[in-house]
Amino acid sequence: MRKVLLVLMLIALAKAGVQAQSEPIRVGIIGLDTSHVTAFTALLNDPSNPNHVPGARVVAAYKGGSPDVESSATRIDRFTAELQTKWKVELVGSIEELCQKVDAVLLESVDGRPHLAQIRPVLAARKRVFIDKPFAGNYRDAREIVRLAKESGTPFFSTSSLRFVTELQEMKKSEKLGSMLGAFTFSPSPTEPHHPDLFWYGIHGVEMLFTLMGEGCESVTRVYTPGADVVVGRWKDGRTGTFRGIRDGKTDYGAIAFGSKSVIPSNVPMKVDYRGLVVEIVRFFQTGIAPVSPEETLEIMAFMEAADLSKARSGQPVKLSELNK
After folding, report:
1. What are the φ/ψ torsions at residue 258 (nearest 5 degrees)?
2. What is the pLDDT of residue 21?
3. Do residue 112 and residue 167 come from a single domain?
């Protein structure tokens, strides 16, 4: 009977997309000013949750916070209290102390500007780390994070949760589509004064675009209005991908894939949740194999910063290579 139960447990874990381990990976969180910290902890720490992801557990956290970012300053105490009272997560006074208590790290600070400074002690401690959006406060910092990670030999990855939405992954892999010839994605795109425009929330739609199109974008053209953006990327193989960032009117997430055999639209609204991402994070913590390459992450960052340059130049095309000069 015990063998039967063990087999059933292993099958359940395989279906969840993670590997069975004798002890869960101890996870630490940096930055408690985003709803992701409570959402991810609920998925990891509550076995009774029907969407529970086994294999890792949040055990410690460093508060962080940015007083000049409203969504950080007004929410950090609430999220901190929930982690401490509901999930019994230990609050520590420094990132260095956090790294001594955990096996892997979630860098969750809602403000991308401190990410470079916050990840330095994590990389020094050689802890595998997931970096939530925005990856950094600018493209220059993003390049430095990648350089430091390679220098230390520490695996990391960064992505929007939208990349791993089931429907989007199915669109990408659909045999009915044929070859991916182009894509159109859309998402909410409010801005924040301390970050390039698309870094703050447009990243979700841009991430969806790169999920479908892959790497290889060479230039970006942006049409800006106060209520919306339309950003067109030209890929090196001649394909085009378009992102619409929505600020006025009804906002939602969606995509259209243009293939050699058919055109496949997503449902609107697209069903969005965090479980797919958390499954990938746990698998990454277990294996050290990142589901998104540093090169693709840097290209996404360059795409978004080039869009700001195109806006400043009244919609002129901007080559991504310009950002590496």
Report:
1. -105, 115
2. 53
3. no
Q: How many CA atoms lie within 13 A of 244 on its CB side?
A: 16
What the block records as the tokens of 210 is: 């790169």
Task: Let me know: does 144 contact 118? Beta carbons within 8 Å.
Answer: no
Q: Are 193 and 251 in contact (CB under 8 A)?
A: no
Domain of residue 169: give its range: 162-272+292-324
- Dihedrals phi, psi of 102, to nearest 5 degrees: -130, 165
* Tokens of residue 223, six digits: 């049409």
Cα 136 to chain centroid, rounded: 11
Q: Alpha-carbon dihedral of residues 184, 291, 130, 299, nearest 10 degrees?
A: -50
Note whether 192 and 313 are same-domain residues: yes
The pLDDT tens digits for 159-183 are 999 999 999 999 999 999 999 999 9
244 token code pair: 């619409």
Whether 206 and 302 have beta carbons less than 8 Å apart is answered as no
Q: Which amino acid is at 214?
A: G
Contact 66, 114 (CB under 8 A): yes
Type and span of the H or E element at 75: none
Q: Nearest-5° angle of CA 23, CA 26, CA 27? A: 145
Looking at 141, 160, 179, the residue that finishes a domain is: 160
Cα(321)–Cα(34) distance, rounded to whole angstroms? 33
C-alpha–C-alpha distance, residues 56 and 306, integer Å: 37
Q: Output the pTM of the full model.
A: 0.92
Model confidence at 4, pLDDT cuts 50, 70, 90, reads very low
In whole angstroms, what separates CA 93 from the centre of its chain?
26
Q: Give 273-316 pLDDT, tens digit per residue.
A: 999 999 999 999 999 999 999 999 999 999 999 999 999 999 99
Residue 147 and residue 227 in one domain: no
The CA R_g of the chain, rounded to the nearest whole Å, is: 20
